[in-house]
Amino acid sequence: MVLSGPSGCGKGTVLKEFFARGGDAFLSVSATTRAPRPGEENGVHYYFLGREEFEEKLSGGEILEHACYCGNYYGTPRGPVYERLERGENVILEIEVQGGLQIREKCPEAVLVFVLPPSFAELRRRLIGRQTEDMETVSRRLEAARTEMQAAYDYDYVVVNDRVEDAVEELKAIFAAERIKTENRKNIIDEVLHYDA
Ligand code: ADP
Ligand code: 5GP
Asked: Which candidate, 92, 133, 180, 195, has a CA 20 to 30 Å from the CA of 38?
């Protein structure tokens, strides 16, 4: 599952609550060249890399998708994602829209979920209220948000993060619906059709 949405819409908050309520998935840890925020740990929130290190990994084929967002590289390390998928686990990538669309090209079975804020004014309030970026960065992120939200039309699902609990329920509903899609139920159809008890 790809989860995208403009900075400050609440992706991190919704995911935290999803896991707190027993959500079962592997959350991919991205690599980035942006500086850590206070409290962010290397290997937990992100792998914090220098530009050269990031570019080496990129040319070595270690990055599944990547984008340049507000002047920094962000990318998904390939290895851990495929390890988990091969074990049959759900995998969530919390990434911006250029990356999301690259994933759709490379993995057509991916489900793309867009998280929208209830309004643009509320997005601004949340981004400023988080107090993790200076005003110049906030302005750049809000500018990027307009373009990013255009991509919502191309996603498979849209979750509006008005109340966090409702957004989490919707996310869980998406996982539940995807699990019972016909293409994920071929085994059970075969079994019922072809084997006698
Ligand atoms: P993102 O991960 O999308 O950049 P965050 O999860 O960091 O966004 O949320 C941005 C800010 O908005 C945080 O201060 C968070 O506490 C707040 N927030 C997130 N979801 C909601 C919500 N549903 N209602 C009110 N505030 C929210
Ligand atoms: P932040 O700096 O707020 O942590 O993230 C900025 C943006 O980069 C967010 O929209 C976030 O979803 C996105 N992002 C985080 N990791 C990745 C990644 O691995 N790939 C891509 N394409 N975007 C990412």
From this structure: 92
DSSP string spanning the chain? -EEE--TTSSHHHHHHHHHHTT---EEPPPEE-SPPPTT--BTTTBEE--HHHHHHHHHTT-EEEEEEETTEEEEEEHHHHHHHHHTT--EEEE--HHHHHHHHHH-TT--EEEEE-S-HHHHHHHHHHH--S-HHHHHHHHHHHHHHHHGGGGSSEEEE-SSHHHHHHHHHHHHHHHHTSGGG-HHHHHHHHH---
Counted domains in the chain: 1
**Residue span of the structural domain in which 47 resides:** 2-193
Put simply, whether the predicted model's pTM sits higher than 0.85 gets the answer yes
CATH of the domain at 21: 3.40.50.300
Q: Give the pLDDT score at 196.
A: 81
Q: How confident is the model at residue 82 (pLDDT cuts 50, 70, 90)?
A: very high
Nearest listed ligand to the Cα of residue 73: 2
Closest ligand relative to 166 C-alpha? 1
For residue range 88-123, list pLDDT tens digits in order.
999 999 999 999 999 999 999 999 999 999 999 999
Atom 2 (ligand 2) nearest CA: 34
